Amino acid sequence: MLEKVVMDKLEEELSKYLDSYVEWILKVGNYILSSGGKRLRPILVLTFSKLLKGENEDRDYPLAVAMEYLHTASLLHDDVVDGAETRRGKIAANRVFGNDTTVLTGDYMYANALYLFSTYGDIDMIRNVSDAVKKMSEGQLLELKKIGDIDMTFEEYFQILEGKTAVLFGSCCYVGASLGGASQEQKESAYKYGLNIGLAFQLIDDLLDYTANEEKLGKPVCNDLREGKITYPLLSILKQLEKKEVDFIKTVLRDINPDKEHIEKIKNMVKEKGGFEKTFIKAKELVNKAINELDNFPRNEYLNQLENLAKYIVERDF
Question: 10 Å Cβ neighbour count for 225?
Fold first, then answer.
């Protein structure tokens, strides 16, 4: 991770650019930003920039902030779509401030991020980030349409993962490399690194939804199953099941208010058939692909940090 002084400055900048005269935007924005989070996306921007030039300059911070704003905006919108009760161990913003205020604050944060890119970025970065935001919307919509669909393919699942999580990781790395003066080949390698750790990150999120400590996770476990979402742990074992088991799962996934015992039965089924191990192995494979992309960069302490960050993706427990 980055030095404490860099992280402290990042936190200051996150508040600095949330500067609307509308009080509710500040309240909602600060509510979710103050709830913490890993700050992986801005860390990736700042680390890739330092990897190539050895330090962070003033221009790096507003663009790192912009990427966290894009992530935060997507969280605000997701919680409204999902009807979320909690986020990062706190009551979800939509439950505190209402859906309309939460959605509009998310819109403001998207717009603010684009403003920061128009001020501190360049057209190449804007093109890459705009494409990522477009794919994020596509991923979220595809996920919504696939709720309860037991026939979802692995290809569709990874399309969802790429859109909802991985493209933003990729863009963070691309922007950071651009800030560091990277060649086009290096920018593309940075993007692939981010894309692969983003896929791995979401796979581990999907695994933790089954296995994590609820208090550490900051939201109920098996929440995806309750919402009818089919993720890799379940998807990976479907072909091993008998028709009656698949039919049972289909019924539970389509139930608006599934029985707790039914959810537990599916969880045990996934565990017994090796779904947890399969998910971890796939995530590890993607992390190794990400680390291989770093061969196009100079070996220094920041490269070591990026390797360690990739490994942390699969080692975390929340």
Answer: 24
Give residue 39's region: left, alpha or beta (phi > 0; psi -120 to 50): left
Q: What sign results for the dihedral spanned by CA atoms 224, 143, 243, 205?
A: negative
Q: Which residues of the chain have pLDDT under 50?
A: none
- Residue 52 sits in which domain range? 4-315
Q: How many domains does the chain have?
A: 1
The predicted-structure confidence for 234-257, as pLDDT tens digits, reads as follows: 999 999 999 999 999 999 999 999
- What is residue 89's predicted lDDT score, i.e. its pLDDT? 80
Strand partners, 243: none
- Rounded Cα distance between 111 and 123, Å, is 16
Where residue 63 sits, what CATH number does that domain have? 1.10.600.10
CB half-sphere exposure, 20, CA atoms < 13 A = 18
pLDDT at 88: 81
Task: Tell me what pLDDT residue 181 has.
Answer: 97
The predicted model scores a pTM of 0.95
Task: Report the interhelical angle of 260-272 vs 184-211 (nearest 10°).
Answer: 120
